[in-house]
Please model this.
Amino acid sequence: MQDSFTEEQQQYVKGFFAGIDARGALLPNAEPADAAPPDALRAAQKATMAAGGKLVPQEEVKAEKHPLDRWDELVGRADAGRFPKALEDFVGRYHGLFYVAPAQDSFMCRLRIPGGILSPWQLRGIADIAEELGGGHADVTTRANLQIREIGAAHGPEVVMRLGDLGLLPRGTGADNIRNITASPTAGIDAAELVDTRAVVRKLHHHIMNTRDLFALPRKFNIAFNGGGAVEVLEETNDISFHAVRVLDGFGVPAGLYYRLNLGGITGHQDFARETGVVVPLEDAVRVADAVLRVFIAHGDRTDRKKARLKYLLDRWGLPKFITETEALLGAALPKVPAEALAQGVHPAKHGHVGVHAQKQAGLFYVGVVTPLGRLSAAQWRGVADIAGRISGEIRLTVWQNFLLSGVPEARVPEVVAALAELGLSTKASHIRGGLVACTGNAGCKFAASNTKKHAAELADYLDARLVMPHPINIHLTGCHNSCAQHYVGDIGLLGAKVERGEELVEGYDLHVGGGAGVEQKIGRLIRPKVAHDELGPLVAGLLGTFLVQRREGESFHQF
Ligand code: SF4
Model:
């Protein structure tokens, strides 16, 4: 495939996005087309309106003035000591700042950490910011990222600037943007991996950050790379899933390593990324991602927020048309192979993100550390940074809300484990706690029906006191249908719900079972709606207890 667009392709792209004649003053404050160069956002909005669609209010905000051009408004509000109102908050999210009232009268700042990899000095800096300008803690998210919470009205832009000093710009981590790119946390250190994804993640991250058209999406967008290693990445829950595969000889493309391209994952809407049959040459991943994004930008729904994700464009068009449009933009057909062309890959071990493991570099180990549902104090993060600086080298966040310390010399593993223990952290977890994830919940998110992190901890305490599971299981608690904690892919998935108890409404969950990802890929099924939070323990213990009694030899809970 070619490295850059030809003149002819550029003309095609221009026509593709321009869509219609812009002279009709279709947009509020629209400038004449010949005075303002058409960009992807303007063209897509015009096309929507030309087709008779009414833009949602968020699109009108973007049309007035692009949110990236409104940083000064954030600074002005901070100088006045006030938080944003209504759609001002939507604008702030383009810069990584979320006003999270009424759950908390403060900002949350969501960082952007491509591939989840941090150096010790960056982590130390984040801990300092969390302590000086936030609530004194930082939380690992389910996108291998960090969030700093409880930031005052006057300090939002200062947090963003301080992160910038660390080389971490949280631009586009909220609103209608491409979120933190996730990837195998063991990239480059994993003997089992097919591809070290660090370079492509870095390249795509910078491509996104430096391509203004890619801040023109109709809705948020997730991208993940799985290098084929030992830790699950849940890449099939992303809008674009790149999964490293080896293509065998005899299938019309040169044998070797590629990324299998799957599209439209959004498990909160009960859909995994669908198989396209496309295999992307490793060097073309950024260009293909760019083309997919541009087709989505041009044709995604801007009239209904609930139908604006990529999945719905694929539903509307069908996969073949989407691939054809992507190929037209690229100016070349994408290589496709049948499933039998792919060599059998390595299946990651469930809970492979926990514990001490040998790296592919002789004599070095990575250490998977369990966090209490992602939250560590600034002092703990500073301690982790000190250990990494002294002994290992890097901190790698995972989508399982924990982290790995990589590059630990074998002889110093006990020292690392002991130093972590002094911080109150462990490299061991029960088969229940190792895959326990929870979204922010109503302690910090206005959408949540329940206090997910608190209830997750209570549930794990209850189960660990009564059961020993023979195999790892994953338990996901999510506060609302946005499903940040992916409840549909948990062996046990809990979706926040209000539950009637007499005259009262209490916090609780809809209980799902049987979900999974990777080789266990399946959407969990609802078996009991509206379970009060204090009835979860006995109910889930009963379920798992039944499994323990009735299971066949070697049978996992997922197979049960
Ligand atoms: Fe908030 Fe819902 Fe996401 Fe939980 S799943 S953090 S409640 S938006």
Summary: The first strand starts at residue 97 and ends at 99. Residues 1-38 have pLDDT under 50 and may be disordered. The chain is about 30% helix and 20% strand.
